Predict the structure.
Amino acid sequence: MTTRWFGDRVPRNEDQRLLTGQGRFVDDISPSNALHAAVLRSPVGHARLLRIDTAAARALPGVEAVWTAEDLGDALRPSPLVVPHDSLTHGRTQYPLATDSVEYVGQPIAFVVAADRYVAEDACDLIEVEYEALPAVVDLEAAVAPDAPLVHPDVPENVAAHLVQSVGNVEEAFRRADHVIEERLVLERGAGQPMECRAVTALFDPVEEVLTVYDTTQAPLSIRNGLAVLLGLSENQVRVVAPDVGGGFGVKIMMFYAEEVLVPLAAVRLGRPVKWTEDRREHLIASNHERGQIHWASLAATNEGVILGVSDRFLHDTGAYTPYGIIVPIITATQLPGPYRVPNYHSDATVVYTNKVPVTPYRGAGRPHACFVMERLMDRLADRLDIDRVEIRRRNFIQPHEFPWDVGLTFQDGRPTRYDSGNYPEGLDRLLEALDYEGFRREQAEARLAGRRLGIGIAAYVEGTGIGPYEGAHVRIDGTAKRVVVSTCVGTQGQGHETAFAQIVADELGVEPSEVRITTGDSRAMNWGSGTYASRSAVVTGNAIGAAARVVRQKAQSVASGLFEASPDDIELEWGRVGVKGSPQHSLSLWDVAVVANPIRYAYGDQASEAMQLMKTRDGAALESGEAPGLEAREYFAPDRATWASGAHGAIVEVDADTGSPVILRYVAVHDCGRVINPTIVEGQIHGGVAQGIGGSFYERLVFDEEAQPLSSTFMDYLIPTSMEVPDIETVHVETPSTLNPLGIKGAGEAGVIPVAAVMASALEDALSEYDVRVNQMPLSPSDIRDLIRLGTDVIGSQPG
Amino acid sequence: MKPAPFTYYDPHTLDEALGLLAVHGDAAKILAGGQSLVPLLNMRLAAPDVIVDINRLPDLDFVTTDNGLRVGALARQAMVERDAAVRDVAPLVTEAIAWVGHRQIRNRGTLVGSLAHADPAAEMPLVFLALDGELHLRRTSGSRRVSAGDFFVHIMTTALDPEEIATEASLPPVPPGSGSAFLEVARRHGDFAVAAIAVVVTIEAGRIRRARVALGGVGPTPLRATRAEERLVDEEPTNELFVEAALAASHDCEPVTDIHGTAEYRRELVRTMVYRGLGRAVVRARTGAAG
């Protein structure tokens, strides 16, 4: 195989469509006779439902249905617990509509279907609900106090799970340590905010008895399989399509969100298409959240700054339910050691229920928390020993010759946490070079003389990516259309799958990426697979596509070898042609070979007919036993375990000490995701992740009052950094190929966000070193930064105006 | 996020509009730029029975600078922002208006609408208070003028009666020898102020003869820091004076804590920004530079 396209900055196949407004998103799909749905959501954080009166809502002209839990019949089942785990002793998932209590503001109570969304919302306003208030569980530490009120009466101490993992002997390590660092570290609740909110549109065809559901989900096959069970249909009677989707970040993967059950159910029962599009307020209040952990972490080290052990106890806020098991805290616990040699490690995680929106993975999925904790400990150790923060990392990095490196833990996929490859010292060197670390120290000193406070922060991370179980792909050459047609059922939310996957195929088959058409997210196009999550699509689906394309290539070689009477090994595929090596007169276009590979006796089009002339008549059956017509293949890839990406980020930040306002002057991301398919796409992933990390450092904070009312329920209060707050992000690629898949790929989707809070904390401390500021919590507003400065002297700066 | 039902009117004359308000009173809401009202309607935080859309009224989209500044009820903030003559007669307005939301918002939003909405953290109310502005209010039975100081009553509450329309806002000419400055700290570009200040000083013979110090986001309305102003008048502008006036200003406000900042932080911001603003305004007064 040549690698003409793999690694190239191929312009994206999907951009023409997306950038000219031709993308087709779920809300663009508007069947003419569709009904519109709205959801009545709990306005209170914790209450018993005493009475629900829907009479006035039902009587409103234009209303077709008003459902509460008791109207759901067989569909009234708690959603499945997607990832069970032995430590999750008290897992709880929710019903599509609340039965006799509500556990968070935003929880669905009633579902209205009406002529339009206006009427549906009017009807929601007419539903009367009588609540008996119950005490709300909000604060994480208070939730596990002995006398705390309970979110679920049958879950003692609000503890859903208690997860303990250990490596070596931590107690012994701490006993012989020269230094012990101890910190309480907090990352507050935040959430993914895709540009497109969630949406579901469902149509039921009563003649064919086929339900079609357009859904913004990241995992259409899981939704299809679940809906089939729930509605008593066979899997091929349910088609779930995730068309163009405007960002996912994890928040769009659930099994199920209430609307994913209610909208299809309504389409079946009412016999009309039903459409629901989430508004931003609903998304902020009622779609899943993440982050939200408190750590008590300690690190033991020698006088030379060598880590002897790390011990971490933490509380993880799972909100009111555990629909996604304990994936997030598992990832936090297992990724905390990061790129360092940590011979002795103990992690003790308590997963806590609160009266808040459930927590499921959001880009980073537990890793930003882990990185923040570990990198804070590293900075503290450096400060304690008066060693440079860069040097302390160098002394503890796992070295390139030490791979595979076994951390000794069990990762989220149930497989050993074993790093396959990496080069952490090189990543750090490249970062320092890009930042001009030494030069910055001079600049910093000069700026200080002019009254400006600059600081530099760095952080390193690893990321387990590309987990199983498997993905599949179907590759077929459509000779008459002159296209390679590829199908997979992972969803696409803007990652550039139509291009990156096409590059892989183009190299295998010797065609142009623009000649490869990729279909993702349609359960009719590919019957098997899992979904887009965990930075896995490029790794798992990419390799499945590569494998399928390879089989197609072999078939093309085999067909051509028959035509040209040459050995298949002498047949090459290049520039769209299939021919005998070194013998250009003996070649055909790949499209013609595909036509010839189908032994029927006619073909449309001049070229195809011409190609048919080459077909050799053979005696007997057109196909031998086991032989298949055409050039196509379906293949799967199931990785043994996660492949470990890594990186090091750094930033230069200026802080106005009088107003507490930070400005990011530079941001450099060094990134290693193994072999890069398309650097432009990877850089886009990093840019987006860093922007979200900046949000998680300075802006994005989901605040609840003592009654569990969300206080950040609009974009005026939940602050997303804009292009004005995000600096130009410089990226540097380091490539250490994965040893766990044929293409050498590691995942890149989540990487950008992981170290940002750690970087910013470090930079703030450096900029404000004269005040001995200690950053143990993120995000920080300027008001919080002022609190940290605790300026003893006059607040007014050195210069007027 | 769909509004509750309402009756929509789009009168074509001012008399017609005033007649509708006379009939519907506080059941009606006026729609001009819609940048605050429409989100409130969509979130059902406001559910008026009647919307009176004044965008079709003639002759209200003016900005004049013959004698001070006059801005009609339908003049978009972007019009004011781009008008070079405004920069000459009221540089504080030009400086502050760039802080109002984002460009798209300023293209639709009206300056008078921002005054009538009276968000205590909004920029234009603060500036009109600092510059002794006036609102021109019309009703079927007549008209009146209300000073900015009297117009802002409480959070999003003004002296406007339900049957009145604010047809114009105006500013008197700024005396010679004046300089001004506007400073704001917002969480992000385009957000409402966590705190903002506007200062105007007039210098004659080396002394401050007149001073206006106005504060936004630190009380139920934009506030005049009168003790700070008193401290400044008749004094020579010195660094020590600015320090004292800034301290006084920080005691002339009633900030509260919310998720974007503590009361204490806002008080600190007032002090820092008034101090910095005075320095900037005095330089501008002396050099005749814009502002």
About this structure: Chain A has a mean pLDDT of 95.
